Automatic annotation (TrEMBL):
This is Pyrrolo-quinoline quinone repeat domain-containing protein. It comes from the Archaea. It holds the Pfam family PQQ_2. Transmembrane segments: none annotated. Signal peptide: none annotated. It comes from Haladaptatus pallidirubidus. Residues 18-108 form the Pyrrolo-quinoline quinone repeat domain.
Length: 113
């Protein structure tokens, strides 16, 4: 699966993802807050946002970035050869589908203290 363009917002910032980058743009004036790039972001399947983090569904897993700094907080991947689904935040869990399996990760354990 190849990534397309994805975007999400928390109201204060807009987070577009494309070509291995996720960028935080100030929602009021469009200035760049941060630009995160990692080889894990090349196949983004979707984005989800909370007060603490931006979650990017990636090939067979999920990557969490700090919403304030863009720093990578966490990466989860499985051994599955099947691509992952867009992440969804449900309560304090981040869910991602990988193949025929849904993985639910506790957000409180993934983000900054």
């Amino acid at each position: 699966m190849r990534s397309g363009s994805w975007m999400t917002t928390d109201g204060d910032a807009v987070y577009p993802a494309r070509d291995g980058h996720i960028v935080a743009l100030d929602a009021s004036d469009g200035t760049t807050r941060w630009d995160a790039s990692t080889n894990l972001l090349t196949d983004v399947s979707g984005l989800a946002v909370t007060n603490e983090a931006i979650y990017a569904g990636v090939d067979s897993g999920v990557v969490a970035l700090d919403s304030e700094t863009g720093e990578q907080l966490f990466a989860f991947s499985s051994d599955s050869a099947v691509g992952g689904s867009p992440p969804a935040v449900v309560g304090d869990r981040v869910c991602v589908g990988i193949g025929e399996t849904m993985v639910a990760l506790e957000e409180t354990r993934l983000t900054r203290a």
